[in-house]
Design goal:
The complex is a heterodimer. By secondary structure, chain A is an alpha+beta fold. Chain A has 9 helices and 37 strands. Chain A starts with 5 loop residues before the first strand and ends with a helix. By secondary structure, chain B is mainly alpha-helical. Chain B is built from 8 helices and 3 strands. In chain B, helix 6 packs across helix 7. The longest helix of chain B is centred in the first third of the chain and has 23 residues. The chains are: A alpha+beta, B mainly alpha. Chains A and B meet through strand 20, strand 24, helix 4 and helix 9 of A and helix 3 and strand 3 of B.
Chain lengths: 649, 187
């Protein structure tokens, strides 16, 4: 039994339901309204018509009840079981005259108003939170959080938690306990504190942390409330790097104690967005300057996967945690990447440039993008796609106020099962489309220019030099390198471009730190571009081509090896491969013998040998002459070092 | 037991150069340092590292010494957070600057993680024993923070900001207020 998926949109005057998968209007389901809000279940909608709040049952699309309002509400919220409703209005002179409060709590069935309270701050929302059972209500005052019993509101608060300067609070149910989170801002010297308490015991906090540099700290819980993310933001950045202030991310983890462990996630650049996976305890952060990095952190707050792709600034997860969409709207060019989180591959790229609202449907089959009047006065409308990128519905309006899918609790819809093969094929098609685009781009740019015939056969890299003059190859001069070849053949000394440090005598224009500036007296230590007559390591008697080939081969190998190697994990083969065959055998023999003996004794012997070598090195630095035997000894030092390193493991 | 000693800084060759003096003053202000010596100290460590990198680059690419010591040098620098993970080559070592080193001091890390109001406040907190890296209390503002321990910087469990008992002055005031209340009640 699968429920129908509903999509709603609301213009200036009308409010409509649409049903998937065809997205046609349902008859007899239009209401007049300007704003609306869903309950958390998705069972009810509250639609605001001037001075009337109409509550509608989404399954029937029939009217449930109406509430009479005195002023336009700024915020509308349902309670978790849909029995109560909160409205918050901006405090104005009307409220003063009639001495009425801002915050009102209503009963949805009867439509009666239960309580009206005055609360001044609009930047600090939420100010009233229900518990999941609907037994308790938590209200914010200037200096305390007060808990009321919902059945007898007029009596007064049952319990209170006093704290000066509360700016933020949250009230959440985790397993069997109720957790209260408070953030209070202190003065300059004291710092601002964030604390978490278990419901009735307000004496001992389960978590507390003081930070000096934060003006606001808000908490974001994971799906089972065992982990949380704190984002602390300061309005002013004292270093002057950022105009909007700085933010920091911290990670909380609940341990078997009951207490929370605190850890800095470690991001120093601007954070664009971060969100929890609705099914697992992992989260994804987008940070940095464009193109931003998008990194997945796991259970223990360690990064384990990095997404590639273009510049995006927001993300949205599907409700079963199987799909992630990165969007780049706002001040960016646009574009949506859809990734599948089971196989970590990109499925699709949507080339959309406008969008202010976006999201997944609750059975994760559809993804919608809508342009809304608040943000843009032009191009209002919405588009609905499937997960693999097909356009299903596209409609435009003059004025569109809001558009979204109807939410639902987890577990109402069966999880979508997609084969690995379909995802792989989607990945392949995406990559093919990417390549096509690049080729098309270059063709489009050059279509207006005159391309001479000798250039037409080239690839994109070569033909991307549009600003440069195009010359016929006959007129391009070749650089002559005859002199060097002659020298090499004759003398075979190899002037070689050695990095000869040579005592570039003075002429060394080196920006040498030395006194050598200009006249370069003395040792112009110039890292001289100086004609240091260095001991350049030339390659006499060889041709240029052979030298180049050798260098290329060596460089390739070394780069691969250098990139793969790490000091701790350097395997034996790679170490051996740098010696010729005549040495390899000796080394292997030595290693086998050393394995048989006692390792500590062997280490001691080797250390003695290294001491001798160090003594020889000192002689060398003092410019004393050494035998050939002594020179070979010095070369054996790395072998001994590697042995010690190997045996210690 | 004799303790091994060596110099850690080197004074500049010319004492009065306007550019150099301005630059050093800016660095001191940006990172909250105490004396010019702390700047020269970092210059010296950088110089030593650059020297060894230069030496290794003169060797052949196959040379075992170059491989061995080069890899060790790169590993040390990446563990301290000075060198990027993607720049694992000796040529990149020669492009390092002083700011890379000074960013890894405990003083700047405490300020950037939000525990302190300003850089100077961070130095005060460190010296007054409020800050610990993991479980180890660190008293030294020029402690070089490694990448692994960067996440574990926080107030130590014994400091009043981190859950310990309040400081000496606060305790004294509480006692005085306690006495005052008693006096008033008696009256």
């Amino acid at each position: 039994m699968s429920k129908p998926i509903l999509f709603t949109h609301c213009t200036d005057q009308e409010f409509n339901f649409l049903e998937a998968p065809s997205f046609t209007k349902l008859e007899s389901s239009t209401y007049s309204g300007q704003k609306y809000k869903f309950s958390k279940d998705g069972k009810f909608v509250a639609i605001y018509d001037p001075l009337n709040l109409v509550i509608v049952n989404t399954q029937n699309q029939k009217r449930h009840s109406t509430l009479k309002m005195y002023h336009t509400p700024y915020v509308i919220e349902f309670s978790p079981k849909n029995n109560y409703l909160i409205t918050f209005e901006l405090y104005s002179s009307k409220h003063k005259k009639e001495s009425m409060g801002n915050l009102a709590i209503w009963d949805t069935k009867s439509g009666k108003e239960l309580i009206r309270i005055q609360s001044y701050q609009k930047e600090i929302w939420p100010q009233a939170i229900f518990s999941q059972d609907e037994t308790l209500l938590a209200l914010l005052n200037q200096s305390s959080v007060a808990f009321y019993n919902l059945k007898c509101l007029n009596i007064g608060p049952i319990k209170k938690k006093n704290q000066k300067g509360i700016r933020n609070f949250d009230f959440v149910q985790a397993d069997n306990e109720l957790l209260l989170y408070i953030f209070s801002k202190g003065g300059k010297t004291v710092g601002s504190t964030a604390e978490i308490f278990v419901y009735p015991e307000f004496g001992t906090p389960v978590f507390s942390q003081t930070l000096m540099n934060s003006d606001k700290m808000s908490i974001y819980w994971s799906f089972n409330k065992r982990c949380a993310l704190l984002s602390s933001s300061s309005d002013i950045d004292m270093t002057g790097n950022r105009y909007y202030g700085s933010t920091n991310l911290y990670w909380l983890n609940r341990q078997s104690n009951g207490k929370f462990k605190f850890q800095n996630v470690g991001i120093t650049e601007t954070i664009h967005s971060f969100k929890w996976n609705p099914v697992k305890n992992e989260f994804c952060v987008i940070y940095g300057s464009m193109p931003a990095k998008k990194i997945l952190y796991d259970d223990l707050c360690e990064p384990y996967f990095e997404f590639g792709g273009g510049s995006r600034n927001d993300q949205s997860w599907s409700s079963d945690g199987k799909f992630l969409a990165f969007t780049g709207f706002g001040n960016l060019n646009g574009g949506v990447d859809i990734w599948s989180m089971e196989h970590y591959k990109q499925i699709k790229f949507l080339d959309e440039s406008f969008g202010s609202q976006y999201g997944w449907s609750e059975d994760s089959k559809f993804f919608y993008i809508a342009v809304v009047r608040e943000k843009l006065k032009v191009d209002n409308g919405y588009k609905i796609f499937t997960t693999f990128g097909k356009l299903v519905k596209h409609k435009q309006f003059d004025v569109l106020v809001d558009a979204r899918f109807c939410p639902a609790i987890k577990g109402t819809f069966e999880p979508v099962e997609i084969d690995e093969e379909t995802i792989k094929t989607a990945n392949r098609t995406y990559q093919q489309e990417k390549k096509k685009k690049e080729l098309n781009k270059n063709n489009e740019q050059n279509s207006n220019l005159f391309i001479p015939s000798f250039k037409k056969g080239r690839t994109t890299q070569q033909s991307s030099s549009i600003g440069k003059k195009e010359r016929h190859p006959m007129f391009i001069k070749k650089k002559k390198k005859l002199k060097v070849e002659q020298v090499k053949k004759e003398k075979g000394r190899g002037r070689g471009r050695g990095r000869g440090r040579g005592r570039g005598r003075g002429r060394g224009r080196g920006r040498g730190r030395g006194r050598g500036r200009g006249r370069g007296r003395g040792r112009g230590r110039g890292r001289g571009r100086g004609r240091g007559r260095g001991r350049g390591r030339g390659n006499g008697n060889k041709n240029e081509k052979e030298i180049q080939k050798e260098n290329e081969n060596n460089n390739q190998k070394n780069r691969q090896n250098l990139n793969n190697m790490s000091f701790d994990g350097m395997p034996n083969k790679e170490f051996l491969s740098y010696f010729g065959n005549y040495k390899q055998d000796e080394i292997i023999k030595m290693q086998k013998e050393n394995d048989k003996k006692d390792p500590q004794k062997v280490i001691r012997n080797l250390k003695k040998k290294i001491k001798e070598i160090n003594a020889l090195k000192k002689k060398k630095s003092n410019k004393q002459k050494l035998n050939n035997a002594q020179k070979t000894k010095i070369k054996q030092e790395p072998i001994y070092k590697y042995e010690i390193h190997r045996l210690k493991k | 037991m004799s303790r091994r000693k060596s110099k850690t800084f080197k004074t500049p060759r010319r004492p009065y150069q306007k550019e150099r003096l301005d630059h050093e003053l800016k660095v001191v202000g940006k990172y909250g340092l105490r004396t010019k010596r702390e700047v020269w100290r970092v210059h010296y460590t950088l110089a030593k590292i650059r020297k060894s990198a230069r030496n290794l680059l003169t060797l052949e690419e196959n040379d075992p010494r170059r491989i061995f010591e080069g890899a060790a040098l790169l590993r040390r620098l990446t563990n301290l957070g000075i060198l990027d993970e993607q720049k694992q080559r000796l040529e990149y070592v020669l492009t390092l600057t002083i700011d890379d080193f000074l960013d890894r001091r405990l003083q700047t890390q405490v300020y950037k993680s939000g525990l302190a109001r300003s850089i100077h406040h961070a130095r005060v907190l460190i010296k007054q024993r409020h800050i610990s890296v993991g479980s180890q209390l660190v008293n030294v503002p020029s402690f070089m923070v490694k990448i692994e321990s960067q996440k574990h910087i926080g107030f130590s469990s014994k400091s009043p900001f981190g859950g310990g008992r309040p400081g000496r002055l606060k305790r004294k005031l509480n006692v005085m207020r306690g006495n005052k209340n008693e006096d008033q009640e008696e009256d």
